[in-house]
Amino acid sequence: MAQAIVIHQPGGPGVLQPQTITVGKPGPNELRIRQTAIGVNFHDVYVRSGLYQTLPLPGIPGIEAVGIVEETGSQVTNFTVGDRIGYITRSYGVYTSERLLPADLAIRLPDSISDDLAATLLLKGLTAEMLVKQVHPVKPGERVLVHAAAGGVGRLLCQWASHLGATVIGTVGNAQKAELARQAGCAHTILYREENVVERVQDITNGKGVNVAYDSVGKDTFQGSLDSLAICGHLVNFGQSSGSVAPFEVSALFAKSNSLTRPSVFHYARERSMLDSMSNNLFNALEQGAIKAEPGMAFALADAAKAHEMLESRERTGALLLKP
């Protein structure tokens, strides 16, 4: 038996209800894991609220966690009992003390990374790796715009792009977040509530624009991101915290031969070799000091609703996690 958080209907944080579940034996290619730390993400909030209707109800939310292998399926050869693993999944089922997991999703964790750090870093870190190494490989001398630069993925993007030799421009909501963005490698910060982002980008870049804009905000920033691009610039829209982007004319890209991408980390990590390569790049970047991250603020698993309330309040800029 395991303790889990189950959603029976979409709604506010109160729909996150503790419940006892039966886990069972692992299938031939599965692991049974005892979870030690669970990441809390805005994706979880969107699933809980019903904005994303991707979790069949009743269901257990969550997309990243860390745990210890308790039992292996008969055909599993690359993991053994006692291994410490992390994972991300788009099949949910994470908010629980124990679970069955396809072995192909498991990532063996280096000793240098704690459970709490890994539980809140894997999704954001693999997303950042995808963005700066694959979707648009950042090159020395490039000009990079990062929206929500003080956020979880934003700070990793700023650090990594700066390490790769880019000049990073970050948009933030206030002076406190601007300082966080500067500490993460932003050469320039823009207070989007007080300044015109496009005008400031043009001023900073001497009218050239940016080679790539990483935009996780969506509706409110999409046009500004597009207008901030250089000739042959690339707009990478990887989130929609302000809402979905409205339909637009593809011919709008023609004016500056721009390109637009809407990537998902799960597609870039869809094969075992791809997941291994991405996670190795992430762990190497951490060990080399190219990026830094701190463990999140912990809540008991039964207090998942409180964690969601804090996340939605945006009172905290650091990561949040649940401890079974």
TrEMBL record:
PANTHER family: QUINONE OXIDOREDUCTASE PIG3-RELATED, QUINONE OXIDOREDUCTASE-RELATED. Residues 11-322 form the Enoyl reductase (ER) domain. The gene is qor. It comes from Advenella faeciporci. Keywords: NADP, Oxidoreductase. It holds the Pfam family ADH_N. Signal peptide: none annotated. One of its GO terms (molecular function) is mRNA 3'-UTR AU-rich region binding. One of its GO terms (cellular component) is cytosol. This is Quinone oxidoreductase.
